[in-house]
Every structure is written in structure tokens, then in C-alpha cells.
Write a structure and sequence with these properties.
This is Reverse transcriptase zinc-binding domain-containing protein. The chain has helices spanning 54-71, 83-98, 102-105, 111-117, 122-129, 137-144, 149-163, 181-202, 207-212, 216-221, 229-236, 242-247, 264-270, 275-287, 304-326; strands at 2-6, 9-14, 27-29, 32-34, 40-42, 45-47, 168-170, 173-175. Helices cover 51% and strands 9% of the residues. The strands form four sheets. It has a two-stranded antiparallel sheet with strand order 1-2. It has a two-stranded antiparallel ribbon with strand order 3-4. A two-stranded antiparallel ribbon has the order 5-6. The protein binds zinc ion (ZN).
């Protein structure tokens, strides 16, 4: 039994133990009946019977996503506020809303619920990446450099444990009272990135994105990366490409105007129709020390200057494709 207090009076009661079939007991405090509720909302956190957090995780996820959508309503795929501005809103508005009071409820979070929480990230990350709605959450997290929500929840919780000097074990980390806090924060960040890496490596989704960003640590070091509507299509493989559109039933024919099967790789690396744009990019990439042209995907995101050349090429190709379709 859990009694939830608000000021001087108890607000509600909740059964913590005993699965199903139990009649809630009648509780009185100072002659006043305390109502049994399921779920109970206390200081903004919704707790269900058995101290389950599913409802809270689901409702805060929906609320935070709606709030974020309202704030970024002026953000459309092709125009509007930039990716870095959306990231600022994501870190400053979305995460604090969805993980409100996580220090209190993270220990109650079941693995299954934690995994489901990440689905509320879909919408904010779609806006940040300016990509197609068909891109998986796993790929969106990596491309945006946004940690999966369950790991972000652990990060905030265990940082609070270190701050209050409370011993804990998490993954390969053992924190004891009196340990160096600065070192502990660094070890925690590293462990979380390792966990994310293992998840990304095991994911069956986002193959194209994995070619560009196989290592989440390296992706996180590239905070300068400004995604746009054009480059994201190549970084995810989801975009204005015949094979992909055919797969989703939007187009009947997967062929490029040149006659070959049209994929992101084909138009970027091989298609003769975009040779002019590609040659300009190859010259510029060579001046930046890239000797593999557009074939080595990881080279194309190595520095901001190189990535800008890549972005210009992506925009050139997709704009030419659109113009040719209109003719
Ligand atoms: Zn072609």
C-alpha cells in the first residue's frame, strides 16, 4: 500500500503489492476516507497499481511530442528553422518534459516500457532530421545524434545518483560513495554510448545510415552537422529514389531515367545524368584531401567543409531530378 500525501492531507492510495482480485482496503486518516485510485497522479507523476509507469511514460511522451510539434510548427522539411535550432528546442523543451522527475521514477521503469518510450522520439527527430517519415527511429537517433530515450533516462537518473553521492551499479560501472565525481560522469557517458553502440550494431534497421555512421561516438563528436531535406535522403536512403518509392507503393517503376534501378547510391555515385554535379563535387572534395570521391561514405561526413560539399551535391542531384520530372 502506498499513501500519497499532498500538504497535510493524504490525497489518494494505491496498491503496491498483490496481483489482481484484491479488493482495495478502506483507509481513513483523521476520520476522513482516503479514496483508492488507479492510477494516482502525484506531483505530476502518474503511478499505476503495482507501481507501474507505463501510463506515465505514454502520457508524458505524447504530451511532450505535441508541445514540441506546436513549437516547431513553422518547421517544414524544406524551410523554416534550422536543424540546430530544433536541437536546442529538443534539448531544452522536449527532453525536460518527457523525462520530468525521472530521478524519482527511473527505478520503477521496466525494460519494455523504457523501449516503448523511444517511440515518442519519432516525431521530434523527424523534424530535426527533415527526413522522410518512413525512416526508422534507430536511424533517426543516430543521424540526429540524439541518444535513445531510455538511455537518456538512465543518464539523468545516474547523474543524480553521482551528484548525491549514492552508490550504484549500472552496466560495467560500479560507483561507491566518495569516488571521484568527475571521473564517474565520464565513465557513465562512455558506458551509455557503449550501450547505444551495441543496440545500433544489433539493429536490423537503418542499413544506409549505418554505412555513413557505424560508430555513434564519432557521430556525437560531429555537433556541427546541420542536416537538411536533401542530404538526409542520401544519409537514410529514404527519399526521392525509384526503388524506395516502389517499395512503399508510391511508384510503379523503380527505374531511373537512365534505365537502371534508381537508388540513393546509384544517383550519387554512378548515374551519368548527374555527372556534371558530381564532377564539381569531386574537384572540391579532392581539394579537401578526399581521394575516394563519393564512394567512401564515412569520408563524406569527416569535416564540416567536406559535409557541406556533400550537401551541395545532394541538393544539386535532387533539384535536377525534380526539374526533369516537371518537364
Ligand atoms: Zn540513373
Amino acid at each position: 500500500m502506498v499513501m500519497l500525501k499532498c500538504g497535510k492531507s493524504a490525497k489518494g492510495s494505491l496498491l503496491k503489492t498483490g496481483k489482481g482480485g484484491y479488493r482495495p482496503p478502506t483507509i481513513k486518516l483523521l476520520g476522513k476516507s482516503i479514496r483508492y485510485n488507479d492510477p494516482v497522479k502525484y506531483l505530476g507523476v502518474t503511478i499505476s497499481a503495482q507501481c507501474k509507469m507505463e501510463k506515465h511514460a505514454q502520457s508524458t511522451g505524447t504530451k511532450a511530442s505535441c508541445l514540441f510539434d506546436r513549437l516547431t510548427v513553422i518547421c517544414k522539411a524544406r524551410w523554416g528553422i534550422t536543424c540546430s535550432n530544433i536541437r536546442t528546442l529538443y534539448n531544452g523543451v522536449y527532453l525536460p518534459s518527457v523525462l520530468y522527475a525521472i530521478e524519482a521514477w527511473n527505478p520503477l521503469l521496466r525494460q519494455e516500457t523504457a523501449r516503448k518510450m523511444s517511440s515518442s522520439q519519432r516525431s521530434p527527430l523527424l523534424r530535426m532530421s527533415k527526413g522522410y517519415a518512413t525512416v526508422s527511429t534507430d536511424a533517426r537517433q543516430v543521424i540526429c545524434g540524439a541518444m535513445p530515450l531510455d538511455l537518456e533516462a538512465h543518464k539523468r537518473y545516474y547523474r543524480s545518483q553521482i551528484k548525491s553521492n549514492t552508490a550504484f551499479t549500472f552496466g560495467l560501472i560500479q560507483y561507491n560513495e566518495g569516488d571521484d565525481k568527475k571521473q564517474a560522469y565520464t565513465r557513465l557517458d562512455s558506458e551509455l554510448l557503449n550501450m547505444w553502440q551495441a543496440k545500433w550494431h544489433a539493429s536490423t534497421k537503418g542499413d544506409t545510415t549505418y554505412e555513413y555512421f557505424p560508430d555513434v561516438k564519432i557521430r556525437m563528436q560531429k555537433q556541427w552537422m546541420e542536416l537538411d531535406y536533401f542530404s538526409t535522403q542520401f544519409l537514410t536512403g529514404h527519399g526521392d529514389f525509384g526503388l524506395r518509392l516502389k517499395k512503399f507503393g508510391i511508384k510503379e517503376d523503380d527505374r531511373c531515367e537512365c534505365g537502371q534501378s534508381e537508388t540513393a547510391e546509384h544517383v550519387l555515385r554512378d548515374c551519368d545524368l548527374y555527372e556534371q554535379e558530381r564532377n564539381v563535387a569531386l574537384r572540391e572534395l579532392s581539394l579537401e584531401g578526399v581521394t575516394t570521391g563519393v564512394r567512401n561514405t564515412q569520408e563524406l561526413t569527416k569535416t564540416k567543409k567536406i559535409f557541406d560539399i556533400f550537401k551541395k551535391l545532394c541538393k544539386g542531384i535532387l533539384t535536377k531530378k525534380e526539374e526533369s520530372r516537371r518537364r
